[in-house]
Amino acid sequence: MPLSTRDDDFHSLSNDINQNLERIERLMEQVRSTSSHIAHELRTPLTHLQNRLYNLTERQGLEHEMREELHQAVEEVHKILGLFRTVMRIGEIESGRCVHQFARFEVRPLLEEVSEYYQPLADAHQCQLLIDAPSGTQLFGDRALLFQALANLIENALKYAAQGKAITLSVTLYRGWTALRVSDRGPGIPENLHATALERFQRLEVAQQQPGFGLGLSLVKAIAELHGGQLCMASANPGLHVYLCLKRT
Fold first, then answer.
1. Mean of all residue pLDDT scores within the chain
2. pTM of the full structure
């Protein structure tokens, strides 16, 4: 809040608001730093635990039931390590500490590369991946991070909205932004839950039947904000449009 040159009630109110906002920002940063630090500190002992459990599964003479229990324990540790890696990755991106290199590149080859990578998984879901992007359209950003963001969006669409229907990757204009869009024909997300779906560890009712931690969209949001953009959703009637909005260049 701007401060008044006069020492009046408005000056005092603005000063109090600024102090509270600064305190909230410090607390939020402490929370982000603490979660990343905990994930970093626990990653090494958990990796050792995973390796030891795996070594036990290779021992001769184990009963089948015991071997299966050990395999399940290895898988559970693997999931926890995946959670920690994602939390740390989000923290790196939000703070700008991740390695990134912005450059101008053509959009369609990026969409084709992501589509080709996920085609086997799409085939398993009897789902068609479509691309709607004219040749020559360019963006300015980190290509590797945007690939990761699109990959997360496609994984979500395949999890919750494939069901033999098409998923479309496109580039479009959205509310004044240049946007990479992933569209599906699934059940969608109610508009009043769009903001909730972007929060960390939030899993909506439609997601409860699928494995995950509710961090996929948080990672995409962090990548969008690193690019000075934002992550938006809109109903596709039926289905969902997810827009990775970037600055127009």
1. 82
2. 0.67
